[in-house]
Amino acid sequence: VRTVTIEQGEPWGQFELERSMMPLKWYYDLCCEMTEYSYAFGPCWEPVIAHCNLAFDQVSRPSLDPSAPLAWWDKVRLLFHGRLTVNCSKFTCLLHVSLDPYNTTEEMEVTWSDLVLDWTNGKYQGQ
């Protein structure tokens, strides 16, 4: 906590205000061009995402709000602001059904060609 003196001019004069650091936020405007991108998702990857969420909690300060903590996706939308545009020649998503990430018999592959993905403030738009 720090004290800041604010000059308001006449007729109010000076005012002392106690300030604390605001939550860390990132602002960006990024455009990427990729020839090929692929990722996997499914129930076998949820422990990894949970562990990343725990690590991410070490970066951001604990909330003073007594409410339940935010989920990782809501926390990302709270802290990251801007636009990410991805132009990808081949975009592949591998959806696992099994709890075993090495099981290649229970998965579905979805592939897009010439995908333009725009993510602005937590909202996706694809073409």
From TrEMBL:
UniProt cross-references to InterPro entries, sorted A to Z:
FMP27/BLTP2/Hobbit_GFWDK_RBG (IPR019441), Hobbit (IPR045167)
Outline the extent of the FMP27/BLTP2/Hobbit GFWDK motif-containing RBG unit domain: 1-104
Q: Which domain of life is it from?
A: Eukaryota
Q: What is this protein called?
A: Jg25678 protein
